[in-house]
Amino acid sequence: MTLASNFRESKAVYAVAGAGDFAVEKIREVPEQVTKYQGRARETATKYQGEVRETVDRYRYQVRDTVERYRGEVSRYQERVDAKDLPGAAVAYATHFGTRAAGFIDELAERGKKVVHREAVEVAELTEAESAEAKPAAGTKARTSQARKPAQGRTQGRSTAKKNGA
Does the residue 84 lie in any domain? Predict the structure, then answer.
């Protein structure tokens, strides 16, 4: 196997190509989204400017009361947590994250495989087009020789026609 074929069969290469394609797709959506939300943000800001101030003043005192109430509840929950349970919970979270990450990498690899093969086809088409453009000198010679053959045939045809009395 060549180095290029090793790269083409590498899941990591496909994942990187897929991530790049995904990033380009999302980046292309940004200007449209910015324009769309910029207008909405201005309208909303002017519409709710007065209401926001009133709401902030109203909830300021409620937040203080809620914080005090939750401080007491947190201290009660701290007593219930057993340090022996933490490693098991950490393993469960890590396993879940690993599974989701592997799935995401597989999706990126599939997307990348499509990108790589699409690009390979385009490169092959460009290479064929360039090689066709590079061969006109050889093609010109062939055309010239082809053009001469009918001319010779015409000459023979005229001389045959002259002989026949035409």
Answer: yes
Asked if the structure places residue 140 within a domain, the reply is yes
19-34 b/e (C-beta count within 10 Å ≥ 16 → b)? bebeeeeeeeeeeeee
Number of domains, the chain:
1
Q: Exposed, middle or buried: residue 128 (CB in 10 Å: 0-12, 13-18, 19+)?
A: exposed
Q: Is the Cβ–Cβ distance between 123 and 26 less than 8 Å?
A: no
What are 108-146's pLDDT values in tens digits?
999 888 888 888 888 888 888 888 776 655 445 444 444
Rounded to an integer, what distance in angstroms lies between the CA atom of residue 56 and that of residue 62? 10
In the chain, % helix, strand, coil (3-state, to 5) comes to 95, 0, 5
Q: Which domain holds residue 111?
A: 12-154
Identity (one letter) of the amino acid at 114?
Answer: K
Chain mean position to CA 145: 50
